[in-house]
Write a structure and sequence with these properties.
With 396 residues, the chain is of the alpha/beta class. The chain folds into 3 domains: 2-142, 2-Layer Sandwich (Beta Polymerase, domain 2), CATH 3.30.460; 146-278, Rossmann fold, CATH 3.40.50.720; 318-390, no CATH class. It has 14 helices and 10 strands. The chain has helices at 15-21, 26-35, 61-67, 75-85, 97-111, 117-136, 146-157, 172-181, 196-206, 216-221, 276-288, 291-344, 349-377, 381-390; strands at 2-10, 42-45, 49-57, 72-73, 164-168, 188-193, 209-212, 225-228, 250-254, 271-275. It has a 6-stranded parallel sheet with strand order 7-6-5-8-9-10. Strand 5, helix 8 and strand 6 (188-193) form a beta-alpha-beta unit. Helix 4 (75-85) crosses helix 12 (291-344). The longest helix is centred in the C-terminal third of the chain and has 54 residues, at 291-344. It is elongated and about 110 Å long.
Length: 396
């Protein structure tokens, strides 16, 4: 029987593999999954997590665990994806962005014809449960995303409307900054990035002024608030690029992991850094206020998973019946074709019919006889009783 599985990586539990997986192209994901013999999959890649959802046969579990010890299978995997969709696995509990990101990942899988019926059933239910959790609880009340909290933090330290804003990065988090900044109507926003297509797209969509990385020093020097969110694994804003002779107040909001802003900048008069650790501390404060909502969300998830498991069993039984019917139908068609050939040869109709019936019975029962013998050898009374009931042997 099929089982749901997920290989999860995030920046806390496995920062090395997360960093590697977060930069995977579609081709690299395809290569990895093809090595596991899996064509159907859904890939979720965000600023904080990279994970792949797929289905496996129960007998495949050990071989996949040998390659990926962190893999979750069955109930553990189901609970994980439902918690992800509901925002319970997010750094900021109840964030809304993750639900949209999961939906986009699923839609992309459908467009690429990489989601089978089993995966679609699980992902649709997880997404609908994520929506229900947000509707029935207050898990998403207040500021829930890292980017929203970061922008709010900046607004308490500077008058955003009158400030020159720059954003370094063109990824998902940078786009979230742009969205949340719009309500403050800043005088100007400079967007700095390496990806020309993405830079142009975001600049046009949000009214930012595009700049390439080689322009970064001059843009930073003229900015009051600098948001930094890139996938770089090293420092990109260095203390040496800041002129201490320029006496001005500057706020650096660095939510990159690892940090992209050199900590020494905070030692320059007027300069302040807010990093991811500062934001997560605020997230922790919000978490304590949502404990009762988390319990309510968990209850909804439990009920949804039980409902899903019943549907999975129903689907698997239907698939088994369909496979059995198709198996029997193929045998019957072959035997009828063979009978017609024998009759055309002029052979006796009763002899041909008897031979056909015997051949059909032998082939149709061969699988059951194999199971019966195996159960008898292992003294598996439960299986023997089920087969006995199936063929109504008892009492004959």
């Amino acid at each position: 029987m099929l089982k749901f599985a997920v290989i999860p990586w995030n920046f806390k539990t496995d920062p090395v593999m997360f960093a590697k997986a977060s930069s995977f192209s579609d081709e690299e994901w395809n290569s990895m999954m093809n090595k596991l013999g899996k064509d159907s999959r859904v890939v979720l890649s965000t600023c904080n997590r990279s994970e792949v959802y797929f289905s496996i046969e129960e007998k495949e579990t050990d071989s996949i665990r040998a390659k990926f010890p962190e893999v979750l299978v069955g109930d553990d995997a189901l609970r994980h994806v439902f918690r992800v969709a509901s925002g319970l696995e997010s750094m900021s509990i109840g964030e809304n962005e993750i639900l949209g990101q999961l939906s986009e990942a699923f839609e992309k899988s459908l467009e690429q014809n990489r989601s089978n019926k089993f995966l679609s059933l699980v992902l649709r239910k997880a997404i609908s449960t994520g929506k229900l959790v947000r509707k029935e609880t207050k898990i998403s009340s207040g500021k829930t995303s890292i980017s929203a909290i970061a922008v709010e933090r900046a607004s308490k330290k500077a008058n955003i409307s009158d400030s020159a804003i720059s954003i370094i990065g063109t990824g998902r988090m940078a786009e979230q900054f742009l969205k949340y900044l719009l309500k403050y109507k800043p005088a100007n926003i400079s967007l700095i990035g390496r990806n020309a297509d993405r830079l142009l797209h975001l600049s046009q969509q949000y009214g930012a002024v595009p700049h390439y990385f080689d322009e970064m020093p001059s843009i930073i020097s003229s900015s009051d608030v600098i948001f930094v969110a890139t996938s770089s694994k090293k420092i990109i804003v260095r203390k040496s690029s800041i002129d201490p002779a320029i006496r001005k107040r500057q706020i650096f909001i660095d939510i990159s992991h690892p940090r992209n802003v050199e900590t020494g900048i905070a030692g320059i008069p007027g300069r302040e850094i807010v990093n991811l650790d500062d934001i997560t501390r605020e997230v922790s404060k919000n978490l304590s206020k949502k404990e009762s909502e988390i319990a309510s969300a968990e209850k909804i998830i439990d009920e949804s998973i039980e409902n899903l498991k019943a549907k999975i069993k129903e689907m698997q039984i239907e698939d088994l019946i369909e496979k059995s019917y198709n198996y029997m139908e193929r045998i019957a068609k072959r035997e009828v074709d063979r009978m017609i050939i024998e009759l055309k040869k002029g052979n006796d109709i009763d002899s041909v019919k008897s031979a056909m019936i015997k051949s059909m019975i032998d082939k149709m029962l061969s699988q059951f006889i194999r199971i019966l013998k195996k159960a008898a050898d292992k003294d598996d009374s439960e299986t023997l009783e089920k087969l006995e009931m199936a063929f109504s042997i008892q009492g004959l």
